[in-house]
Structure formats: structure tokens, C-alpha cells
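On to my pick:
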Amino acid sequence: LVTGVQTCALPIFEVLKMWVDERDINKIPIIVSALNQILSGSHMITRSYGTKVTWQDKVLRDTSEIRGVRNQAIETVQKMLINKNQLFAKAGIEISRGIGKSMLGSHLPLEKQFIVEKELIIETLSSLVSSNNDLEIISLSIDLLFHWWARDDGISDKAEAVLLAIKDSPKLTIYRSLAS
């Protein structure tokens, strides 16, 4: 059963996934912007009252509709991570960093959903780093996994397992030294 929120979002995801499949790098900023908004932990709302404007962070409730939309977004990010064009993989890593991000801190209604989403991304990153020779992609993946491991928010064991499985090489060490 598809509900109102999902009915509106489904055509958007079809377009985003089509752009990922087409590997049109000109669409990457649009894809990143859309998925960052969908996967954030809260959303900035502006309201104007005459001559005054107020900003407020709005937290989404944990509903099946919201989870369904977020799941579609995560599927799109996973497609980006495994895309043959490395620019899409880099953008997917960038988007993943923003999962659940909020100005309101932690303990949001969707906190458990954020953990599930990050676990799915960790699984995809595990495959990505084991089969990828691009030092930048591996380095960006390490940075993201290390960030999630350090936060210790329910996924640190899974992030640590992938970090420990990454084969260190002199090339990777040199790349990471020069890139930082």
C-alpha cells in the first residue's frame, strides 16, 4: 500500500535513479541536494510574519511513510556508491555522512532508522572498498567509517569491522598523508 507521502516521492526517486544509471555528472549536485534533504535528521523551516522572519528546525516523526521515503533514498545512495563513475561514489559517500544530521543533536524520533540506514551503507562500503582500487574512494570511505566508529552511536562495531578489513598499502598510506 502506497500512501500520500510515498506517492509524491516515488516519481522523484525514479528520476534520481535514472540519472544515476545514466551517469550524467551534471546532475550530481541536484541528486546530492535532494538526498541530503531527505536523509537529514531535521529540516530548517522559515516562516514570515509581516516584517519578521523566523527559522526553526523541524524534526520528522517516525512513521512508515517517512521510513519508506528514506529507504528509497538509501537505495539511491547505494546505487551511487557502486556506480562505475567514481564521481557518483564520492557523492554517495558525501551524502552518507549527512544521514540523520540535525542541529537539534541526537535522540530524534528516527534515531533507530538512522542506524539501519548507516548499517546498509556500511555493507555497501565494505563491498566497495574490497573491490575498488581508487585510493580517493577508499580514503573517503575510511574517513566516513572512522567518523561513524568514533561517534559510537550503535554502529561502531560494524564500522570497525570494515575498517579492520581494509588492506593497508604503502600507496594508500602515502595518498592519505598527502591528501590530508
Summary: Residues 100 and 114 are 6 Å apart (CA to CA).
